[in-house]
Amino acid sequence: MRKEIAKGLLSIEAVFLRPDEPFTWASGIKSPVYCDNRLILTDPEMRDKVEQAIADVVKKEYPAVQVLMGTSTAGIAHAAIAGHILGLPMGYVRSGAKDHGRNNRIEGRLEKGQRAVVVEDLISTGGSVIDVVETLREAGADVLGIVSIFTYGMEKGRKRLAAASVKNISLTDFDAVAEAAVETGYIKEDDIARLKAFRDNPQDEGWMNTNEPCNEE
């Protein structure tokens, strides 16, 4: 599944790899990869694969789930479609409380003690999805874990998830995308070491200064 989803994301250009012309993230970090999983929704074939994969992961890893909760905004559609496949209710968590009405941050019905799975499109450092998990826990939900489409596998993200005692299952990840990109001729095999050097330390721009493989400890 990891490799199939990775190849699909590359084919619809939901993931771009540009080790020689890095992107600049909003944080200012120079990155050789850019991910826009919203493009999944505009490709029916890929959308079907991803949503079925999310549903399959939920059934296998979280069989006791009672409700899916999407992250705002990218996880909402995926939670809704996977919830439809599974016959489960869904809702979503806003990035901040509304400033009108009932000032909700959680949209949709959520009962105390209800077993929830969070649906996220991608995880980098993990801060936003953990905020969603904590919001649901504060509301009384039993958060079983997360299903994400793509994860960078950054150390900071792994540590944050572990500290929050939350399980994450991703359909694919940074390594699978890099390997698929080499297989399809998208990038050179030597670029993998540079990509992993970025993944392991995004703040260090040393990976940009050489085309030679970077030594990893």
Give a brief description.
This protein is α/β, with parallel strands linked by helices. The protein is built from seven helices and ten strands.
* Alpha-beta classification: alpha/beta
How much helix, percentage-wise, in residues?
Answer: 25-40%
Which residues form runs of ≥5 with pLDDT under 50? 211-217
β-sheet strand percentage: 15-25%
**Topology, number of strands:** 10
> What global shape is seen?
globular
Sheet with most strands = 6 strands, mixed
SSE succession = HEEEEHEHEEEHEHEHH
Mean pLDDT: 91
User: Using only CA atoms, what is the Rg?
Assistant: 18 Å
Alpha-carbon distance between the two ends: 28 Å
Order of the strands making up the biggest sheet: 7-6-5-8-9-10
> Helical stretch count?
7
Write a structural description.
The protein is an alpha/beta fold and 217 residues long. It is built from seven helices and ten strands. A six-stranded mixed beta sheet has the order 7-6-5-8-9-10, sandwiched between helices. β8 (115-123), α4 (127-138) and β9 (142-151) form a beta-alpha-beta unit. α1 crosses α6 and α6 (174-183) packs antiparallel against α7. The chain is globular and about 50 Å long. The model is unreliable at 211-217 (pLDDT under 50).
